[in-house]
Specification:
Length: 373
């Protein structure tokens, strides 16, 4: 008989996002209707895809570099240079940078002023507001990179069309006297975006297998977090990522297994997840078969909500009677859903973050556990 979890994950009435949400499609329909939408709206999806390709997208730590030529002439003409727009991340905020070569407001006539502008974008209604990330703008040293002039400022803008401006970014006098910043009447600028500190992505330390019985992390007190780096490489090489832990003190040794290119009927289309029971010091004293639940969440890297979760709950019929037994969900999440949409993104910087916890139906008796030798 199908369990409630099986029904929820296979129900044709479940509302799901269009698989082209990563290029801006906001459609959400029941599973039974979503395929028809994806096939019939192909022209709209193609238009969105072309738009997303035309505008560059930054990953965390990446930058946009642009140059301004004929600085002296453009400064005399009070010109404002606007760089090409870009997205802060996949399905993210749309932005551009303006450079007022002869300054503006308090910097008019004496300084170069810079402004970072939020533009109206196709993903705005899905994004988190206010926008509070930090923007770093630099005038690049054309001799050596270590001497760049830069300015960091943190946004707090409630909607698109807002901007933050540094009116006295760099004085004309300083720029004219410093050939490293202005060479052949040309200046180079670089823009970096720094997302907020995200405490829910704070990982625990990976276990040294040789010291496993001495330093295991326990998943019964609070959820544990680990990250899967180099996702694309693991996917293309059909490799797994494994994270070892202990369900509780003096309890089951376990590990979470992530199949980046899927497993069983999820191979090639999904990310699959599962857990395995490993040989441990206390196995003879533990109740068998293993009866408990393992909650696994794929974490949204933009906000502490909208995570993708599942509860794995083997029954007695699943025969988890020994170490080495493996319980999994083959179709955990479609690979094309990893980019999410708007304020939901599971894959960033080629990295996935998982959080998990374990609850056992029957706890061991620690007062009967022998002292480690």
């Amino acid at each position: 008989m199908a369990t409630l979890v099986d029904h929820v994950t296979s129900c044709e009435c479940e509302v799901v996002s269009c698989k082209y949400s990563y290029v801006g499609c906001a459609a959400k329909k029941m599973k039974k209707d979503i395929k028809k939408h994806e096939e019939e709206d192909d022209k709209h999806h193609l238009h969105l895809a072309l738009q997303s390709v035309a505008i560059p997208t930054l990953s965390h730590g990446e930058s946009i570099v642009f140059k301004i030529t004929d600085y002296s002439l453009k400064r005399r003409n009070n010109e404002v240079f606007t760089c090409d727009p870009f997205y802060t991340h996949t399905n993210g905020y749309k932005m551009c940078v303006k450079v007022f070569l002869n300054g503006t407001e308090s910097g008019a006539g004496t300084h170069v002023s810079v402004a970072t502008c939020l533009l109206q974008g196709p993903f705005d209604k899905h994004l988190k507001w206010p926008f509070t990330w930090t923007v770093k703008i630099e005038i690049l040293d054309q001799i050596r990179e270590t001497s760049n002039m830069f300015y960091d400022y943190k946004f707090n803008v409630d909607q698109s069309d807002g901007q933050c401006c540094c009116e006295q970014f760099a004085s004309h006098k300083y720029i004219s006297q410093d050939s490293k910043l202005l060479n052949n009447d040309t200046m180079y600028f670089r823009v970096r975006i720094k997302k907020d500190y995200l405490p829910w992505l704070e990982c625990g330390k990976q276990i040294n297998r040789k010291l496993a019985n001495k330093c295991y992390q326990y998943a019964n007190k609070e959820p544990l977090v680990f990250k899967v780096p180099d996702y694309q490489m693991l996917k293309e090489s059909n490799k797994t990522y494994k994270y070892s832990f202990r369900s509780a003190p003096s309890s089951y040794n376990m590990r979470i297994i992530v199949f980046c290119n899927g497993y069983d009927n999820g191979k090639g289309s999904h990310v699959s997840v599962g857990f395995e029971l490993c040989a441990g010091l206390y196995d003879k004293m533990l109740p068998w078969p293993f009866q408990g639940t393992v909650k696994i969440e794929l974490l949204n890297q933009l906000a502490n909500d909208n995570h993708h979760s599942i509860i794995l709950k083997p029954t007695i019929a699943d025969n988890m009677n020994n170490t080495g037994e493996f319980y999994y969900k083959a179709q955990y999440i479609r690979q094309d859903q990893l980019h999410g949409h708007g304020d939901q993104q599971f894959l960033m910087d080629n990295t996935l973050y998982f959080r998990f916890s374990v609850s056992t139906a029957s706890m061991p008796k620690p007062w009967l556990v022998c002292t480690d030798s």
